């Protein structure tokens, strides 16, 4: 099953603020091998396949340092097609001497963790086949164990060609101010399903039986919503609905609960209870 297309709801585009656009360009295109879809003096949009936007970086005229202990980005996660692709990314970063934060086997996936030059969290991961995931009472088993030390054995000396064209925005993990309030917003307001709960610290939600399209945690941000000012980190993200009817139904639920909807041209935006902005796309 394809978890990042209709009839599912998922994140496909993340927008970040950075301090130095040239430095970020060197990292995302030079080291990770993403292609540049659009570029201006203030912003760059990157793509894996040269067609679909994946990540947009903007360097504001005035940008403040990140606030690590407030709501916002924990990490965005790029999904590569295979274990061999994950091994290739690992080998590339090691060759470049780029520091890794860690790696983990989550039972449903294997993941590599790092930060971009501004400290924005990144996960690059591959999924295990969905029929190998373990479910009980509607909840999926996700662990955090050491990644297989033989990962690089997948490689046969092929040259690095950049992240595969099939790379997708697999999920987005957010730091939030109030876990239960945010869970209610995304589940009851937007229509996600709670598929893993590690209360009172983290929740994982999805549609269509995926292990998670969104992660929510309060490990560093409990009680601290998005702070005023333009800070390095998450600007907003784009949430894709299967069709206009499902989007309108979600908008109606949000409006009924007192959430404001901002319309800019034909694009619609809202903020979750922590003040995290997102686009309601189709």
From TrEMBL:
<dbReference type="InterPro" id="IPR004360">
    <property type="entry name" value="Glyas_Fos-R_dOase_dom"/>
</dbReference>
<dbReference type="GO" id="GO:0046872">
    <property type="term" value="F:metal ion binding"/>
</dbReference>
<dbReference type="GO" id="GO:0004462">
    <property type="term" value="F:lactoylglutathione lyase activity"/>
</dbReference>
<feature type="domain" description="VOC">
    <location>
        <begin position="168"/>
        <end position="282"/>
    </location>
</feature>
<keyword id="KW-0223">Dioxygenase</keyword>
<dbReference type="InterPro" id="IPR037523">
    <property type="entry name" value="VOC_core"/>
</dbReference>
<dbReference type="GO" id="GO:0051213">
    <property type="term" value="F:dioxygenase activity"/>
</dbReference>
<feature type="domain" description="VOC">
    <location>
        <begin position="10"/>
        <end position="127"/>
    </location>
</feature>
<keyword id="KW-0479">Metal-binding</keyword>
<dbReference type="InterPro" id="IPR018146">
    <property type="entry name" value="Glyoxalase_1_CS"/>
</dbReference>
<protein>
    <submittedName>
        <fullName>Catechol 2,3-dioxygenase</fullName>
    </submittedName>
</protein>
<keyword id="KW-0560">Oxidoreductase</keyword>
<dbReference type="InterPro" id="IPR029068">
    <property type="entry name" value="Glyas_Bleomycin-R_OHBP_Dase"/>
</dbReference>
<dbReference type="Pfam" id="PF00903">
    <property type="entry name" value="Glyoxalase"/>
</dbReference>
